[in-house]
Design brief:
Elements lengths: L9 E4 L5 E3 L2 H22 L4 E2 L1 H8 L3 H10 L13 E2 H8 L7
Helix pairs in contact: 2-3
Length: about 100
């Protein structure tokens, strides 16, 4: 069976020479704009959330005892103002020797 294309639906030829449906260029442009807006929104809303021991150990892929040991040795910065150990993502990244996460 021959694969026929309805000419009324074709707007232009695509990157690889295949036909592109009418309106798809605008759709792709709108998607790109939304992607850029989402990226900008995520970057502007970015904050360094506090984590407890469980979240910190999951983030760093280590055990709770490894986190506690690093705090006890003074290798990992922590806040104890609330009576429990709280960590910022940046502090864990510094302890791990990795760059900060942009998201």
């Amino acid at each position: 069976m021959e694969n026929k294309i309805n000419e009324s639906w074709v707007e232009t030829e695509g990157y690889d020479g295949s036909p592109v449906a009418k309106g798809s260029a605008e759709f792709i442009e709108a998607i790109d704009k939304l992607r850029e807006q989402l990226f900008n929104w995520v970057c502007s809303k970015r904050r360094d959330n506090w984590m407890g021991i469980k979240e910190a150990s999951e983030y760093a892929f280590v055990s709770d005892s490894t986190i506690r040991r690093a705090v006890r040795k003074g290798e990992l910065k922590t806040s104890k103002k609330t009576g429990k150990l709280l960590f910022k993502e940046a502090w864990i990244n510094t302890w791990l020797g990795s760059p900060p996460n942009p998201f």
